[in-house]
Amino acid sequence: MAEIDALPFPFAFKPEAVALVVIDMQRDFAEPGGFGASLGNDVGRVVAIVPTVKRLIQGFRAAGLPVIHTMECHRSDLSDLPPAKRNRGNPSVRIGDVGPMGRLLVVGEPGTAILDEVAPLPGEIVIEKPGKGAFYATSFGEDLKRLGVLQLVFAGVTTEVCVQTTMREANDRGYECLLAEDATESYFPEFKAAALAMIRAQGAIVGWTAMTDQVLKGIADA
């Protein structure tokens, strides 16, 4: 066991029982014409973390540690998309509508795909999730139990929505959670800052945060 220099205090890293979870690094959230852009967001903020996410993934792969990817997406008939989700806000197009990269957030469409730079390798688990959290209506929990995972390191987008939701779900299920601060992003800097503060408040009530270099050092020291 090694320690990762983290906040609010060092994270006791267990390489025999850890997995990296990369949340929703999809074209629809990172490229013009995708769902994120349709909401009026600056997708350049997501693009900026891609090299760091890639480096974190490579570090886990090099150490032979599991990498799990998630994709927010829905069935083509939208039977798993409740009206309360589809009709929220005032986007220029909605989930399931046709955009420049196909139907937004629909399984199998080009825009729903994970970015090439951080794409899964054959054999890596990919969780297709209809909600914000990765545990809801998926096999994620069963996959973690099968792998013997007790700790989760998180990266991906967005910090305050799908990342934080999954961390809270994992925390409630007994997993120790660490978020790589520079490998996650929000369309709103203030939301990211608030989410990081909430995660590590009250003695890591949801989890810990650390920089990618600190995580990779922990892997190397283990």
Number of helices: 8
Shape: globular
Q: What percent strand?
A: 15-25%
Fraction of residues in helices? 25-40%
Number of strands: 10
Which regions have little confidence, pLDDT < 50, spanning 5+ residues? none
Helix and strand string, N-terminal first? EEEHHHEHEEEHEHEHEH
In spatial order, strands of the major sheet run 7-4-3-8-9-10
**Major sheet summary line:** 6 strands, parallel
**CA gyration radius, whole angstroms:** 17 Å
User: Which class of secondary structure composition applies to the elements?
Assistant: alpha/beta
Question: Gap between N and C termini, in Å?
Answer: 6 Å
- The averaged pLDDT comes out at 97
Keywords:
single chain; 222 residues; 6-stranded parallel beta sheet; 10 strands; globular
Would you summarize the structure shown here?
This protein is an alpha/beta fold and 222 residues long. Helices cover 36% and strands 21% of the residues. Strands 7-4-3-8-9-10 form a six-stranded parallel sheet. Strands 1-2 form a two-stranded antiparallel sheet.
Structure overview:
The chain has 222 residues and is an alpha/beta fold. The longest helix is centred in the first third of the chain and has 19 residues. The mean pLDDT is 97.
